[in-house]
Structure formats: structure tokens, C-alpha cells
């Protein structure tokens, strides 16, 4: 202890369980020298399992993101050194993995804000789908909900550009199972991704063959408006299949007509809510097409016309 107190390259270390929290406070000081000394002292404490536990559970990993962008090279270097020491222990590896997984998912999501982002990430879609599948099968530890939401959102954005990578990775079946997740955020993103897949002919066919439609009908009564809207969107896209082109779909034509009616009624109800109306204005061209299609069932045409009136209503 005396050596530490006399060493100018180290911060003074408090006694007992106060040691790590006190050094965390030093890491937030504006003076670069304070951060440098605190990191050096933390590294000295990493031989003690109790101090390791305090470090990974006391907030250092949250501060790590800031320290890795510090303007001082020695602060960044010592942060990496401390991370290396933490990952030498099971609890440290687990926590660092969680933080890195979330940071990576956020980076992927943020990259989609640029026009070329989705196109650049298309090649990663099969790997993202495989990761979600392995977690589901228990071969990997399931990610926290926030990470799953970001992964699904990334898949959705990429699939709007090109649905083939996700469709080729058993996407409809996997997303179909996510539709029943207890988290409304995951249900919302899974339904949005499913809607992106159902735009293509192959996606529509797989939605029918994988028996996803009954699950989507249940989601029309979901408590979350966005979940309902996304589910209705999938049903609408799937329902425009020409039933004479495929034997399986021909057999399901009666069921599809019922689903169309359910979805149009759900859309009409959603449009009565300002947030729902805002979301559905994006799908107005499709609704108008439905309401004017001469070959469409008369009841469906009327239901679509009613939906258009409510969506376009203005006070």
C-alpha cells in the first residue's frame, strides 16, 4: 500500500471495498493525469477476484466506451490493458462479450442510416440469421432483448433492399417463431422483417407454406399498435398472390380472403389512432390499389375503401 501511495504514476487506493468505486470516480475526472493514474491502480488490483467482480459489475465497462475514445493515447492503451486482464477471468469474459455484442449491434444499426449501409451489410444477413437460430436452439447463450431487437432491425432493413439472403437462410420460419416472443419490441421487429420478406413472390409463398398466417392473425389483436400494423402488412402482401398459380395457394384461397378481411378491419381500427394513421399513410398506395381492383372480391373492395377513408381523414 505504501508503494502505491508513493508512486506518482498510481492513484491512491482506498481501503477495502471502497477501493474500486473510488478509482471509478477518478476515471471521470477531466484531468488526463487522473485517468492515467486511476487506470494504473485498477490494473494493479486485478490479481484479486473480488476486485475483478467489483470492476465488471460496478460500471467500468460502461466507462470503457468513453475511455477507448480518449484523446490521450496512454489512456486508450491502459484501457485496453485493463480489458485484457479482465478477459483472463470467466466473469470478465462474459461481461465484455455482452458489451461488445451490444456495441456491434448498435454499429450495424447505425450504419443503416446511410443510403449504402443496407447494401454493404447484405452479405452479413445469413450470419445474423444463423446467430439468431443458434440462440434459439440453445447452442449459444441468448442475447439480451435489446441486442435481438437490433439484429432483427438490421435484417429488416437489409431485406427491404433484397429479401433473398434472409429467405435463403430459413428466414420466414425463424422470424415466424419470433412473432410469439414475450417482448413486444421483438414481436414488432420480427413482424416488420417478415413484411419485408413477404414483398417478394417467394416470400409470400413461404409465409403460406410455413403456417405463419394464423400467428399473424393473432397479432392483429396485439396490445402494441406497431405490432398490429406490421402483422396486417404481412397479411396484405401475402394475400395478393394469384391463387391459380400454385396448387397449395389455390387450396388456401378461402382462408386468405378471410385474412384479408381481418387485416383490412384491423387497419381501419388502427387508422383511428394518430400514430397508427401516420404509419399506415406509408401503405396508402397499396390500400388504394385494393379498393379499386376490379377483379377483387366486392366485400374486400368495400373494406379497403373504408380503410382508405379513415387513413386519409383530416380534421
Automatic annotation (TrEMBL):
User: Which Gene3D superfamilies does this one have?
Assistant: Leucine-rich Repeat Variant (1.25.10.10)
Transmembrane residue ranges: none
Q: Which Pfam families match?
A: Arm (PF00514)
- Renumbered to this chain, the signal peptide range is none
Q: What is this protein called?
A: Radial spoke head 14 homolog
Amino acid at each position: 500500500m505504501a508503494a502505491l501511495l508513493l508512486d506518482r504514476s498510481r492513484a491512491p487506493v482506498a481501503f477495502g471495498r471502497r477501493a474500486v468505486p473510488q478509482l471509478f470516480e477518478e476515471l471521470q475526472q477531466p484531468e488526463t493525469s487522473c485517468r492515467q493514474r486511476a487506470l494504473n491502480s485498477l490494473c494493479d488490483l486485478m490479481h484479486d477476484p473480488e476486485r475483478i467482480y467489483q470492476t465488471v459489475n460496478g460500471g467500468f465497462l460502461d466507462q470503457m466506451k468513453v475511455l477507448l475514445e480518449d484523446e490521450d493515447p496512454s489512456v486508450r492503451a491502459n484501457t485496453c490493458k485493463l480489458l485484457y486482464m479482465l478477459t483472463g477471468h470467466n466473469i470478465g469474459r462474459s461481461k465484455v462479450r455482452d458489451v461488445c455484442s451490444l456495441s456491434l449491434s448498435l454499429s450495424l444499426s447505425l450504419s443503416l442510416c446511410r443510403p449504402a449501409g443496407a447494401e454493404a451489410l447484405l452479405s452479413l444477413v445469413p450470419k445474423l440469421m444463423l446467430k439468431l437460430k443458434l440462440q434459439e436452439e440453445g447452442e449459444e447463450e441468448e442475447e439480451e432483448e435489446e441486442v435481438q431487437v437490433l439484429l432483427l432491425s438490421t435484417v429488416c432493413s437489409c431485406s427491404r433492399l433484397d429479401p433473398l439472403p434472409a429467405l435463403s437462410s430459413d428466414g420466414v420460419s425463424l422470424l415466424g417463431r419470433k412473432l410469439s416472443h414475450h417482448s413486444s419490441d421483438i414481436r414488432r421487429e420480427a413482424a416488420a422483417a417478415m413484411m419485408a420478406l413477404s414483398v417478394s413472390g417467394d416470400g409470400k409463398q413461404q409465409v403460406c407454406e410455413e403456417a405463419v398466417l394464423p400467428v399473424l392473425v393473432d397479432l392483429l389483436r396485439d396490445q402494441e399498435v406497431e405490432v398490429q400494423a406490421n402483422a396486417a402488412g404481412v397479411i396484405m402482401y401475402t394475400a395478393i398472390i394469384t391463387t391459380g398459380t400454385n396448387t397449395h395457394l389455390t387450396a388456401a384461397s378461402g382462408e386468405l380472403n378471410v385474412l384479408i378481411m381481418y387485416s383490412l378491419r384491423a387497419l381501419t381500427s388502427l387508422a383511428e389512432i394518430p400514430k397508427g394513421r401516420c404509419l399506415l399513410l406509408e401503405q396508402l398506395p397499396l390500400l388504394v390499389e385494393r379498393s379499386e381492383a376490379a377483379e377483387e372480391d366486392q366485400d374486400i373492395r368495400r373494406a379497403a375503401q373504408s380503410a382508405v377513408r379513415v387513413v386519409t381523414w383530416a380534421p
